[in-house]
Amino acid sequence: MQVVVTKHHGLGNDFLVLDTLQFADSKIDPAKIDWPAIAREWCNRDNGVGADGLLLMTRLDEFKLQMKLYNADGSTAEMSGNGIRCLAQAAFDADNHDSPVSYIVATDNGDRVVDVRPISPEQVLASVDMGAVTEISAPENWAAVGTDPNRPVMHLSVGNPHAVVGVEDVQVVNLLEIGRKIPQVNLEIVEPGPENHAITMRVHERGAGITQACGTGACASAWAASKWGLVPASTPEILVHQPGGDASVRLNHPRKGHVTLIGPANFSSRHSLELGARTKS
User: Fold this and answer.
1) Where are the beta strands (DSSP E) in the chain?
2) For a 10 Å CB count at each end of the chain, is N or C smaller?
3) Which CATH architecture has domain 2-129+265-274?
4) Mean pLDDT to the nearest integer, 50-68
5) Mean pLDDT to the nearest integer, 159-168
6) What does the pLDDT look like over 20-30, one tens digit per residue?
């Protein structure tokens, strides 16, 4: 079966989006497809289309969607701040909207509200209530990272697990080597500035490796930076500089303990791909 996927990116963090509505008139049950194998094939940058992950979009009603995320290695993730913006753009484009729309997106970590506003034919600006930020235990094998005890560290959940480490210069850290020691979590390294309301971040993502940006990572990093005093205590919105571009994180919004992520999503390309006969045993 041939299916159509669209490729989108949020600040260089790219995803393939497949609308499961394509299976409505087929004899194929999407629940029986080996999606981890499909994700590994399609997301492969040498032999496939190439992406950080595959997003399955299921329509629950006109403005409610369901998102299932498979990382490039076939593993699943509960939530993705960049991915959910890309998913919302895919729905927005497919529905031919030309004015702001709000979607409710059901994820493995609960419902998220995504407000989408068109910027150009290929770009939208999306804001997402990312839910509560909570402290969690350090991941197994954290001691192997060998973090300087004088560096600030926070272990946080934004629907998925993060370890955030404050450093003097994000460019001199061997992020790949360190990230591979704790592959079960997302690792962010953060430095203040250059503006007084901003931080600079690099990320090693669980299931994908080093990526150009991470939405949940930006949220975790902004939260930690505020707690550490890397930005003034009165700063309500932190600008997060990442290799792929900038996102903004509103703290304690829309309610105390929550964060709202704001950033672009861009349409990249459209592909007709062979699904093959992969089914779960």
Assistant:
1) 2-10, 13-19, 53-61, 64-71, 76-77, 101-107, 110-120, 123-132, 134-135, 153-157, 161-166, 186-192, 198-205, 209-211, 237-242, 245-251, 258-274
2) C
3) Roll (3.10)
4) 97
5) 96
6) 999 998 888 89
> Hey, which CATH number is domain 134-262, 3.10.310.10, 3.20.20.80, 1.10.10.10, 3.30.70.920?
3.10.310.10
Token output for 133: 């930020």
Residue 257 is encoded by which pair of tokens?
Answer: 């303990």
- Is the full-model pTM beyond 0.90? yes
Amino acid type, 49:
V
Confidence at residue 1, expressed as pLDDT on a 0 to 100 scale: 87
**Residue 82 and residue 264: Cα distance in Å, rounded?**
9
Give 134's pLDDT tier (boundaries 50, 70, 90): very high
Residue extent(s) of CATH 3.10.310.10 domains in the chain = 2-129+265-274, 134-262
